[in-house]
Amino acid sequence: MPETTVESLGSFLETQVLDPWKGPKKVIPEEYYTSGHRTCQGCESAQLMRLMAKAGGPRSIILGATGCMYVANTTYYSTPWVVPWMHTQLGSTGSAATGTAAALTAMMRKGKMTKEPINVIAVCGDGGGVDMGLSAISAALQHLHYNLLILCYDNESYANTDIQVSGSSPYGANTTFTPPGKVHRIMHKRWKKNTAAMLAAGHPDVKYVGTVCTSYPVDAMNMVRKALSIGGPTFIHSLDPCPKGWDYDPKYSHELGELAVETGMWPLYEIERGKLKMLGRSQRIVNGQFKRKPVREYLMRQGRFAHFIDEDYDYVQKKTDEMWEKWLIPGVIPFFE
Length: 337
Ligand SMILES: Cc1ncc(C[n+]2csc(CCOP(=O)(O)OP(=O)(O)O)c2C)c(N)n1
Ligand code: SF4
Ligand SMILES: [Mg+2]
Hints:
The chain is of the alpha/beta class. It has a single domain (24-325), classed as 3-Layer(aba) Sandwich (Rossmann fold). It is built from 12 helices and 8 strands. It has an 8-stranded mixed beta sheet with strand order 2-1-3-4-6-5-7-8, sandwiched between helices. The chain is globular. The termini are far apart. Bound molecules: thiamine diphosphate (TPP), iron/sulfur cluster (SF4) and magnesium ion (MG). Iron/sulfur cluster binds at residues 39-40, 43, 45, 68, 72, 155, 159, 242-245. Thiamine diphosphate binds at residues 66-69, 90-91, 124-128, 155, 157-161, 166.
């Protein structure tokens, strides 16, 4: 039986060449996600959409699962999207990405479209991606002959339906499903799901998996550009401060993103063709050049942790220390030798 190769499947494998922007001055002025949305003031997920659309450029198709980045961006007769955008069901980001990439491939193969590399970017929240749509994302990451990027914007709750706890909500957070009470102060006791590393470890043929935070915008855009250029399915996980769900003044979004990284609660890294590289402050933490800030500095700035007492801060600190001092790969792979 002849071997099934990418070529025999008729795929159009070429990607756009999206070189990294060397510093903020090199970033293009054009916007592909503009005014016309109704996200909250200080919404870092909206900022991520803007950066991602800029990074991908005009020849991109964006698919968006249900959530804030669908609902708040598609008010009747008004939308911020300059590039084509399509809504998909909450758990089907992976399927929508694969289907769109497959459709483009088929249309080009049949001569119904001019052959050209078009970015397929599918966006999901943590509820849609980390929880409900994980299997479809896994399937998309196994279809190596399609070029696509799945971008998870993680505001650490099912925000659009009023801040329910998700597999990505941090330990102890006050959500509408986990309100602190007199009998149980901590209602949410799970540690945040380690999604990017799980997907990278579970899909070793995937050429690019990374974590970003919009507080470092040029890095985030360059990672999107790399993911779109490298070929095949890719995944990026972004931590996005959310003033409504995290309960803080919107003007502190940028600072909170930085604190998430500086306390070590959100490690920044990329895994390119199986090679792990810690990035930015996270790299400096691993190299011993930057001392992690106490998690308390990050947690006490957010109303969702207002019920914390010393033992709760200590617990989160202990678990975070473990990530950096005891995990097989600091901040990434949680096995113990
Ligand atoms: C199958 C299904 N179940 C439930 C809903 C209701 N729903 C709409 S948006 C949403 C929250 C999604 O959370 P997340 O993916 O984290 O995105 P966010 O709202 O935080 O942006 C839910 C539960 C739905 N649309 N479809
Ligand atoms: S609830 Fe959070 S994620 Fe949703 S629009 Fe507001 S700030 Fe953005
Ligand atoms: Mg969410």
